[in-house]
Design a protein that fits this description.
This protein is α/β, with parallel strands linked by helices. It is 31% helix and 21% strand. The protein has helices at 16-23, 76-88, 107-119, 132-140, 153-174, 181-195, 202-211, 246-250, 283-291, 310-320, 360-363, 391-404; strands spanning 3-8, 29-32, 41-45, 48-52, 65-68, 73-74, 96-99, 103-104, 199-200, 216-223, 259-265, 268-270, 304-306, 308-309, 324-328, 338-346, 352-353, 367-374, 408-412, 420-422.
Length: 428
């Protein structure tokens, strides 16, 4: 048995979906452990190019059980649309399950998200306005509704009535329209008809899986730099994408976790507001954006691009306790004559740091300390193993491993499944 967490090692959008798709062929369960439909995991395989927002990326394998864990916030309407799309392209969702303890993300959460971001004026966070923040806020305030509430209509009706007393007051203050409780209850009853068979208490299922020696993959969303506690607060998500939360959000004992794989691009990207020390505003940054097709999978927003941040990867690897890295999009750097890597930050007081990402108030004025490395002119897209890579590309990957303090186990040189190769670090 192995329990392996796959987490983002940068600002999100690192390619976690394709890593999960690659690894899931040998897994029995894939469990999404946090987040909502505010970010997308892009997967390219025999079913074409698909973006998943809530459904775990093991769904393309018919024998894999896929669970949306208790650490997630679930928009029932969005989930139904995603299931309908998957079925339309021939993907079976027979083994898709939803934890009864996962929170519901309701239409008023999206409205509140938009109104709250608007009220911030110039001090925006860069939220996707998908309602994820307000949904997690309600969870913490104990006024949220769970997916399991759909199975108990009378209980749901009372909980919804209680929640709307506060929600409608907030909407009034922010200039929004009040929610019609009866109308929303009717919508939820329609969702119940289709989702009820999938809503389960996942604890007995996962206890049996561990007892049977099954292989489990825990799928995270976003990355450590967007972690609620350890990211660039307040420009963060409303949950914890780090591995420490993976077992809790999935519904497993903490001691069950065996391996932790961090996913990073061969360069850096960031969607949303907040400090991003390695950002490029030149032709190289534009080239990364164009060649890498760096546009948000959920919102379509262009991603900010920059050189690889070695400080952030060292920070992410230590916080997550990573046992290995998967480096994606190496091919995007093909043909760049001189590459740079940020090996440290110089703060406004002149001090230098290399082993931690400082608080946002200090990071916002930090300047990168660059190392230069030679690039390579040979295209890497045809490489199918470590030995096929140009020596300069091998040296570049090895430097990333040195900065992280963990080995690179997987390298990707394109979007297809066969563009990913194992350097000898398979968790199975």
């Amino acid at each position: 048995m192995t329990v392996t967490a796959v987490v983002g090692a940068q600002w999100g959008d690192e390619g976690k979906g394709r890593i999960i798709d690659f690894l899931a062929k040998r897994a029995d369960f894939v469990i999404r452990f946090q987040g909502g439909d505010n970010a997308g995991h892009t997967v390219v395989n025999d079913f074409g190019k698909n973006v998943l927002h809530l459904v775990p990326c093991g769904i393309f394998y018919p024998n894999v059980h896929n669970i949306i864990g208790s650490g997630c916030v679930v928009n029932p309407q969005s989930l139904l649309q995603e299931i309908a799309h998957l079925k339309s392209i021939g993907v079976s969702c027979a083994r898709l399950w939803i934890s009864s303890r996962a929170q519901m993300l309701l239409p008023y959460h999206r409205t509140l998200d938009e109104l709250e971001e608007k009220a911030r004026g110039a001090d925006t966070i860069g939220t996707t306005k998908r309602g994820v923040g307000p949904a997690y806020s309600d969870k913490a305030a104990r006024s949220g509704l769970r997916m399991g509430d759909l199975l108990q209509p009378q209980w749901l009706e009372g909980r919804l009535d209680s929640a709307l007393r506060v929600v409608n007051r907030k909407l009034e203050i922010l200039g929004g329209e009040a929610v019609d409780g009866r109308e929303l209850y009717g919508l939820l009853m329609e969702c119940r008809l289709q989702l009820a068979p999938r809503i389960v208490d996942t604890v007995p299922m996962l206890r049996m899986a561990l007892d049977a020696g099954n292989d489990l993959l825990l799928e995270g969303q976003l990355g450590v730099m967007r972690d609620l506690d350890w990211g660039i607060y307040p420009y963060v998500t409303s949950s914890n994408p780090t591995a420490a939360f993976a077992t809790s959000g999935a519904g497993l004992p903490a001691r069950s976790l065996d391996k932790i794989y961090g996913v990073c691009k061969a360069y850096s990207t960031c969607v949303g507001d907040g400090p991003f020390p390695v950002e490029l505003h030149d032709a190289i940054g534009k080239r990364m954006q164009d060649v890498g097709q760096e546009f948000g999978a959920t919102t379509g927003r262009p991603r900010r691009c920059g050189w690889f941040d070695g400080v952030a990867i060292r920070y992410a690897a230590w916080l997550n306790g990573m046992t290995g890295l998967a480096v994606t999009k190496l091919d995007v750097l093909d043909g760049i004559q001189t590459l740079k890597i940020c090996a440290g930050y110089r703060l406004s007081d002149g001090s230098e740091i290399t082993n931690t990402v400082p608080d946002t108030s200090l990071l916002i004025d930090a300047q990168p300390i660059w190392e230069e490395m030679p690039g390579w002119n040979i295209p890497t897209t045809g490489c199918r193993g470590w030995e096929d890579l140009p020596s300069a590309a091998q040296n570049y990957i090895n430097r990333i491993a040195e900065l992280a303090g963990v080995p690179v186990a997987y390298v990707s040189v394109g979007p297809e499944r066969d563009h990913m190769f194992d350097r000898g670090g398979s968790p199975f």
